[in-house]
Amino acid sequence: MDFKTKLLISTASIFLVILPFLVTRFPPITDLPQHASQVRLFLEAINSANSPYKINWLTPYSLPYPLIGLCWLLFRPANAGRIALGVIAAILVSIIFYLAHSRNRPPEMAVIGSIFIFSHVLYWGFFQFLTGWIVFMLWVDFLEKTIKSKKATIAFSLILGFFLYFAHILWLILSAAWFFLFCLINRNLRKNYLKLTGIIPLLGLGLIWYPTLASYGFRSDTIWATTPFQRLSPAWFLDAALGAIRGPQEAIILCLIIGWIGLSFWQNRKNLSSNCYMSFLYLAAFLFFLALILPDKHTNTIRFAQRWVPPAVVFTLLATPPVKLSLNLRSILSIVLLTFMIFITATTWKAFEKYELSGLSTALDLLPEKSRLLGLSFLKQSDLVRGRPFIQIFAYGQVLKGGELNFSFADFGPSLVVYKEKRRPPWTPALEWFPELVRERDFTFFDFILVSGDEKVHAIFAQNEKLKSLNKDGRWHLYQIKK
Amino acid sequence: MASLSDKKINSFCFSEINSFNKDRLSCLIIIFFALLGLLFLSIVEPSYLRFQGFPLDDAWIHAVYGREFARSGILAYNPGIPATGCTSPLWAIFLAIPHLASSSPDITVFLIKIMGFLFHLLTSLTIYFAFRRSDKTSSIFGAALVAIQPELIAASVSGMEIPLATFMSSILILSIQKNPLLFAFSSALVCISRPELTVLALLLPILLFPFSRPKLISYSFAGIAGSVFSWSLMMLRNWRISGLPFPATYYAKVNSSIWSSFKSFYVGFSQLFPEIAIVNSWLIMVGALIISLFFLHSRHSLSEHRMASSFFICGLVYCLVSFYLIPPVDPKAFYHQRYIFPGLPLLIAPLPVIVASYFRPKLSPTIKKIIFFIFIFLALLTIIIHAPKRFRHLANDTRNIDDVQVAIGLFLSRTSPTDTVWVVDAGASRYFGRAFVVDLMGLNNFQLLTKEANYFLNSHPPSFIEVVPGWNEIDENFVKNLRYKLFKPSTSYTVTSFQPMQYHFLFFSTEKKHKGKIMFKGKSFDFELKPPKLVK
Predict the structure, then answer these.
(1) Domain spans, chain A
(2) Chain A residue numbers touching B278 (CB-CB < 8 A)
(3) From the CA of A401, how many Å to the nearest CA of chain B?
(4) ipTM for the predicted complex
(5) Which of A228, A235, A289 sits opposite B382 (nearest CB)?
(6) φ, ψ at A481 (rounded to 5°)
(7) Neighbour tally for A447: CB within 10 Å
(8) Measured between alpha carbons, how far is A322 from A265 in angstroms, rounded to an integer?
(9) Chain B residues whose beta carbon lies within 8 Å of the beta carbon of residue A292
(10) What's the pTM?
């Protein structure tokens, strides 16, 4: 396939991938509003000496924020998060195509690989992890390249190490681990050792930074909800590889992709090692292995194990030899598959916005500037998407109007912007997760409450004499607290 | 004939002792893994082995039979009266040993747990010898996985017959590699350690020797002969005692659910299997099943591959039979899980052999080694992650039983032998209590399963009646005249998922006789409650 056709396919894939972000104002991405509101808090911390916030310059989770900040300036605060995420998705697709092209891998595999951007990693809003994924792919590319100049090698290593550190510390650790495995497999540690020079000082920096995280109370029990053997099941694999949209669609798509990989391996079984891109296959195996053994939750990081599966599937696809069909047919089939996924995604997001977030726009419009807002989402599960897409929706209030929330990422130690003095809220904690625990005395600390729920829930709130309902249509209502 | 069989048994024993000497290191590894499992249990729940009882009241029923066998040489529930409530007569006979060794319940319970663990250890070692014809690494790891498997460790110290049943099934798979006489002997023993294991004695020869007619005939005949012999003895005894051929448990439990077979199988494999380490992997189980069927189907399969596959399929069939006979209505409860535990070693031990055999001809030696050790690593990690949960469950179940059933038993220890107690849970109340016990479920009083039920109850008027929500109830018009004592657990109730069952009410009358009506098993019976003659 010539370069022009590849470019056309990659452009089409990028367009398809960013489409859902363009057609939806409030995509079902859990942490998105909290990440966007970090930009507002950043501006507040920079512009006001009296601000309760400080900037955590050393935090290894800050790389996406310059991009979100840029989108904040260019596309207004309301759109900053989703457009930044769209750009991250577009870059991710571009890098997948770059890796495929530079290694002469079949382009249709890059098209199919683009599907896995719409996994639980995106839906939970792991901005940093997605950004880290991009940098890690560049790191993988860098490891396989021969750079003659020692200075250039060190410089590239430092730059990539810097980006890995500021994207996500887990990707930095993984990069170091993959370096050693790569050198072990290829027996070329002596040739490559300079490539590690950029990583080592940043791992050291991570060691300095980590105690500050622990002292900020950012710790949790380490939980294995499932054992490694239990994870060897189709249900777990589906949840870990995509795990985003409810219904049978994802299972159908995954079955087709597994069938595609299986057919390719079967057709190429006689020369499998020469037709596969073994380095990526080893990397994918390593990522799958991590997904099997790591805990489900560690130091407040949820989906600690499952998050490695989408990258593992992408590397598997890039390692897989082409199916013995005509190139045009392969390309068309892959584009059809991606289009099917995008169609499902875009329609689901639109339906989510229209039905499950009904009333939200009106409620946010009615919210005055700089209000103290309490978010209570009695809608816990969505009928359309998996996970908990509603828990941080109330943070759109801070994105659009500033003010203060009952819970903010500024309460999280590793965030870019954190409270100077760690908040010790007098109200019931974790209301974003457990709104049913709310007590009437909690209302005294806020000006407004953003409530989601069915008619019964709103009937209870509407009857409360201390509250005044400001909008009555849809599932999301804003209540003013009478003083 | 007898001298010939003695010679064969002796030569079998000597050959195994010689093998043990040759395989000392392998055996030490397996023993180390088993002890590691026990140590893990002791670390997670330090008081379990020494200071707690059993996680099921049924274990106390076994202990009652064991104590009576030690005392009188008969399998009895109430002293001196033969009963048919024992599904594992061989276990009851073995339980006589700790009762002969000590009369103190604390020490006896500890000795029962140690004896169960020794059977578990012997199971692992026997399995190693059974698989030794396969490559050594696979057979060691297969046996080591069985040795350290948390469910089997927990079951071995639960007071139930499971370790004996697993040991007997491992003897069965070893004996089928030796000679038909030993196989017949093992088949006979396996049936009286757990009746469902009969299916192994019948199925193993068919799976192992389909292409060798003489072996197929001789071992099938041996399996059938051994099973028929055991079953005949058991049925004859049951018939003489109760007029019914099967153990009372059969009539009380088997097919008592309204579940269809399909639903039982579905819930068993999709909800009960995920609760058990190693077999909780859909991919490993389905993969092993496919490879096993392939090896069994092919005439050219190596004998060790056919053997591993046969054992695996036998394990699955055993689970199917178990699910069919006793539907897993509460898959999270040890009560229902334990029915399939005797089949677990057959499912787990062959896995390393099957994995290694599948990859052997296809990949380079390095990749094969990596895959094999990744499998072992994942299996061990699965066990390490899973074990604390299982051991905490075991200890909490036991705490529940100690708080309720054992407490009732201790309360009844003040009764006189001339008193009568009607109970739902018939284990600890009989073990610790002194009164004559009527088991309302009919497991230990076969009369309740027959037309004589009414007469039997009338001739044994109660001084105490145990009421458990969901199982029995006293007509509300009579309840107000009675006194009761409530027994409930001090920790969360995990013995079953049916939470009302945690409350046990012991009704009694202190002054005068009270007439009333009791409902259980869909029937209603009159009773006359008389004041107990408590011993001071």
Answers:
(1) 3-30+61-351, 364-481
(2) 229
(3) 46
(4) 0.81
(5) A228
(6) -90, 120
(7) 17
(8) 9
(9) 378
(10) 0.86
